[in-house]
Design brief:
alpha+beta; single chain; 17% helix; 2 domains
Length: 154
């Protein structure tokens, strides 16, 4: 068994200074990388909930959830749905949202855990017997990620 001599005060100070400088350098790199995100094209397979429900007050709602295998992603959901207007200036039965997302930059350190981003949308009181549509589009590589058409029942 080897006996180790304790570090002398100057050697200990040098070692401690080196560790502090290394931590500071890694913090700067990590902070820089954390702020560098890039546009990300959402995949349909990441859409884990696109469900319509009706509450006791009669409002129709949509619950939208995206699930990612790691951290570093942000889905930019609009604050409310858009309802189309026809040529006569009247509201139609077509609702939509446009979402965009950012993802981690190459080499960025991210959490290794499943993360979710979700939003709820209130379509309001809908008329019985009318047919409605709700679509979700993404702004990067403009495509429709999900959509549904239904007739409002009593």
């Amino acid at each position: 068994m080897m006996n180790r001599l304790p570090l002398s005060p100057p050697a200990f100070a040098v070692k401690r200074l080196f560790v502090l400088m290394l931590v500071a350098a890694l913090s700067v790199v990590s902070a820089h990388k954390a702020s560098a995100t890039q546009p990300y094209a959402l995949q349909y397979s990441q859409l884990t909930s696109f469900n319509r429900s009706r509450t006791a007050d009669g409002h129709t709602h949509y619950h939208v959830v995206f699930t990612f295998s790691t951290g570093g992603y942000t889905v930019n959901f609009p604050p409310s749905v858009t309802r189309a207007i026809n040529q006569n200036g009247q509201l139609t039965n077509d609702f939509s949202i446009n979402v965009s997302a950012t993802g981690p930059s190459p080499g960025e350190i991210v959490t290794q855990q499943i993360t979710t981003q979700e939003a709820w949308y209130d379509l309001g009181l809908l008329t019985t017997g009318q047919t409605y549509t709700f679509t979700m589009n993404q702004t990067l590589n403009p495509t429709t990620l999900a959509g549904e058409s239904w007739t409002r029942s009593a």
